[in-house]
Each structure stands twice: as C-alpha cells, then as structure tokens.
Amino acid sequence: MLRALIFDVDGTLAETEDLHRRAFNRAFADLGLSWHWDPELYADLLAVMGGKERLAHYVATRHADDAALRARMPEIHGLKTRIYGALVADGALALRPGVARLVREARADGVRLAVATTTSRPNVDTLLAVNFPAGDRPFDVIAAGDEAARKKPAPDIFNLALRRLGVDPEDAIAIEDSTAGIRSALDAGLPVLATRSRYTESHRLDGAFSAVSDLGEPGRPHRHVFGVPWPDGVVTLSGLKRWHASI
Question: Are 213 and 195 in contact (CB under 8 A)?
C-alpha cells in the first residue's frame, strides 16, 4: 500500500532555482566579485547537484589557480544562503501548483510525507515556514544538504529519507523534477512522478511513470508530458493510490 510521498525541493516543491541564482549574484556583488551567473550559465551549472558543489565546480573550472578564492567558498556560500533565506522570507517564493493541496490530502489520509533534497536545511526550513501556518510541521521527515555522503544522482538522500520514515521503497512514491533526481530515486527503489520545472524543460525525465508540467489544481489543469494520465489534469492522492495499487 502507499504509505509515503517523498518530495524533492528545488524545482519540485517550488521554483527555487532562479531565486538561488539571484542570491548567488547578490552575494558575488556584495563580496566584490565580478562574477554574474545568467540563466544560460546557471542552467549548465545545475548539472552539478548542491549549491556548495556548484560553486566549487565554478571556481575549479574558471579560477583553478586562485587559492584565495577557494578559501573564500564557505564565506561566499554562507552569504548566499542568508540572502536566499531573506528573499524567501520576504514572500518571493510560493509553492508550485498542487503541492499544498496534495500535502493536505496526504496528511488527512495518514500518508507520511518526507523531503529528500541536496539543498541546505535552512533553505528548506525557510520555504516551509513561509508557505505553511506558523508552528506547522507538514513533513514527517526532512533529509537535506550534507546529511548524505553523496549528492544526487546517487540514491543516498532518498535512502536516508526512507530509513527515517521506516518505509520500504515499494510503499512510497518520489516526486522529482530533474534527470539526476529521478535517477537518485529510482536507484533507491522508488517509483517517480516527474513535474517539469523552469530549468528542467529540456530534461528527458526517463524512468518516471508519469511526467506532467505540475501537479495541477481544480480548474487549472497541468500539461501532460508522458506516461500515466491524470483525470482533469490534477494529480490527487486517490489517483496516486489507484496507480500504486495497480503495479
């Protein structure tokens, strides 16, 4: 039976990636660095999972001989994280269509909820604090950031979420938006529902049992991409349970 839903964060719970890009650029400017990540460059950098790892990759490939810059990476990323949190707290980021509704449906039905993400825990906490009532804890488990030894596409972060939930992978569904995230979930034994995001429009999303533009809302249906279709263009808990029972 379906016992849990496990959500990615960046691009899945919310369209966070461009806000991350803006926060990086503001941190660069505040620290006197002449760098600027435009959307095209950032799309390429997203092939590296994790903000700290993305920054390290950029420095290693563009400024490999600058030891002083390498030493400043914790400072740069720390400032970026604070800027990002302030932007989210100011209301710059809402949940994607259908996310809050599906979370409500799962909680009402006793289906457990988890997050499995490579983003830093403070980023997750701020996003949830802004989009759910004060004191509410919508997710039973949050596995985030550096808690796993390897980033996606390795399965480590999903394995960690499953262990904390106490749920077998065949009793859960992962919701992801990227090629790397899908690979991570599949290698953890999880079936995957894919929701395309701004920066994953070009991703093939192979391996997902269904791919849609978003989870959809009544009266605001999603765009079906491939795989299992959803009545009225809305992914519901009852629909997920019916599909899960059929496999």
Answer: yes
Every domain range in the chain assigned CATH 3.40.50.1000:
4-15+94-246
In CATH, the number for domain 4-15+94-246 is 3.40.50.1000
The domain defined by 17-92 folds into DNA polymerase; domain 1 (1.10.150)
Q: Which of 8, 140, 177, 214 is catalytic?
A: 8
* Residues sharing a CB contact under 8 Å with residue 54, sequence separation 6 or more, in sequence order: 45, 46, 48
Q: Where are the beta strands (DSSP E) in the chain?
A: 4-7, 112-116, 141-143, 172-176, 192-195, 210-212, 224-227
pLDDT (tens, 9 = 90+) of the chain, 247 residues, equals 999 999 999 999 999 989 999 999 999 999 999 999 999 999 999 989 888 999 999 999 998 888 888 899 999 999 999 999 899 888 878 999 999 999 999 999 999 999 999 998 998 999 999 999 988 999 999 999 889 999 999 999 999 999 999 999 999 999 999 999 999 999 999 999 999 999 988 888 999 999 999 999 999 999 999 999 999 999 999 999 999 999 9
Residue 10 annotated to the active site: yes
Which residue out of 10, 140, 177, 214 is catalytically annotated? 10
In the residue annotation, 90 being an active-site residue is answered as no
